[in-house]
């Protein structure tokens, strides 16, 4: 699953965008540890490794571990500490982590029960004062596009249903930020994310990637349903609202 995605490299300018976005998100997560000079991170679903690259550029010393179910992903991740596992199950670790992070991951789980199990398993390996953080698209913003965009999207992520799971497991300190990929690229200050998101939605109110693909079809041959359709990528980058959950283990 997704082998075609991992085998195809992004254009250089997109790599720079994704790396900067990862650096800004990492900066937000590091604000939870103002006094620590070294940290341990576990990333669930590392994808093409942009978050790992951001960690390597960080001034803070960070020990990194990765978990994924895809052999190709793990092969391409440049860390010695990597494990194969199908979530919500986790491998057996002999350490605890300051931060457990997963981007564009929980929407691929089959149900809220699986997310509950995943968070419960994560908590076992979370240090006191550590955080669990998930980044995921908001189904209430995308509506049916949430399912149309990716055939593996199964769990409909909302602020409410995810926060209820965290609360049931005992997390009382939960922060949820709203923003688009454009927001994450522009700034590491989350207080600006929501205004940028709504400004871009306002300015692009009439933008529709289906319509633009049709209008420019005489000169742009990629169909609106194709993976490399740039009108869809622009929509996803500027208009899709994502939720960044940060739950602290107090």
Topology:
Elements: H1 3-7, H2 12-30, E1 38-44, H3 50-57, E2 61-68, H4 71-76, E3 82-84, E4 97-103, H5 112-124, E5 126-137, H6 139-142, H7 145-148, H8 159-169, E6 173-179, H9 181-186, H10 193-203, H11 209-215, H12 230-238, E7 242-248
Parallel strand pairs: 1-2, 1-4, 2-3, 4-5
Antiparallel strand pairs: 5-7, 6-7
Give the proportion of residues in helices: 40-55%
Distance between the ends: 37 Å
Task: Return the CATH architecture.
Answer: 3-Layer(aba) Sandwich
Quickly give the structural class. Answer: alpha/beta
Radius of gyration: 18 Å
Q: Compute the average pLDDT.
A: 93
Q: How would you describe the shape?
A: globular
SSE pattern, N- to C-terminal? HHEHEHEEHEHHHEHHHHE
Which fold name fills CATH's third level, the topology? Rossmann fold
Largest sheet strand order: 3-2-1-4-5-7-6
By DSSP, the count of extended strands is: 7
Spans with pLDDT under 50 lasting ≥5 residues?
A: none
* Beta-strand percent range: 15-25%
Write down the domain tally.
Answer: 1
| Assigned CATH class | Alpha Beta
Mind describing the biggest β-sheet?
A: 7 strands, mixed
| CATH homologous superfamily annotation | Vaccinia Virus protein VP39
Q: Counting H and I runs of at least 4 residues, what is the number of helices?
A: 12
